[in-house]
Amino acid sequence: MIALVEPSLERLPGYVAALRTGWSPSTGRDVSAEQLAEIERDVARFVADLARNGAGATVTLPDGSTVERLPGLVRWMWDGSFCGAINVRHVPGTLDLPPHVSGHVGYAVVPWKRRQGIATRALALMLPIARSLGLPRILVTCDADNEASRRTILANGGVPDEACPQREEIGKLKLRFWIATG
Ligand SMILES: CC(C)(COP(=O)(O)OP(=O)(O)OC[C@H]1O[C@@H](n2cnc3c(N)ncnc32)[C@H](O)[C@@H]1OP(=O)(O)O)[C@@H](O)C(=O)NCCC(=O)NCCS
Q1: In a structure prediction context, what are the per-residue pLDDT tens digits for the chain, which is 182 residues long?
Q2: Whole-structure pTM over 0.90, yes or no?
Q3: Residues 36, 42, 46, CA angle at the centre, nearest 5°?
Q4: Pocket of ligand 1 (CB under 6 A)
Q5: Residue 41 Cα, ligand 1 centroid: separation in angstroms?
Q6: What domains are defined for the chain?
């Protein structure tokens, strides 16, 4: 059975083992090496920052400019061992997102646990969490050629964004879906 759990020092070894294989929780860019370095520097701080998705820290955009990370949280997918990570980020009080954030939720499953329904279940478990953050629906996007992610979204009731069902972001065609959280 899959649960979403808060990142913790106790469960960190499974996360570290995944990073060491080169697995990255972020699909936009490979952050495995930099996260391993952060863990090496200050493990307690890493876990505390990760749990709230690094909110408040700055992010460097492809054009070199920096912006503040949105409020959010990270949960680990757990079946007795580490399976993957899912995060939610939002702008309080609105469904709108700034242009550099493609959707409210992002997820990645470790390669050796894929195709077991874990992402589908994790996204379902994230919906009430997103609702508790004040989001009645969430925008979830995927690359047009990411069949596994598209199916994960559809299995959770994803409906194409009427106004903009797809758009190019940083040279990639993204499909845009809304999922009701309750
Ligand atoms: C996308 C990802 C999270 C899916 O995780 P998963 O746990 O394997 O997904 P599930 O087992 O819940 O499968 C979801 C659906 O995709 C299908 N699927 C899974 N892997 C697939 C693949 N490689 N090719 C085609 N379909 C696939 C499953 O059959 C299932 O379809 P169904 O609901 O019609 O039966 C995982 O492949 C991954 O981490 N990829 C790299 C990171 C990424 O792309 N994240 C999403 C960014 S938007």
Answers
A1: 999 999 999 999 999 999 999 999 998 889 999 999 999 999 999 999 998 888 778 887 878 889 988 999 999 999 999 999 999 999 999 999 998 898 999 999 999 999 999 999 999 999 999 999 999 999 999 999 999 999 999 999 999 999 999 999 988 999 999 999 99
A2: yes
A3: 65
A4: 27, 107-109, 114-120, 142, 146-149, 151-152, 155
A5: 33
A6: 3-136 (3.40.630)
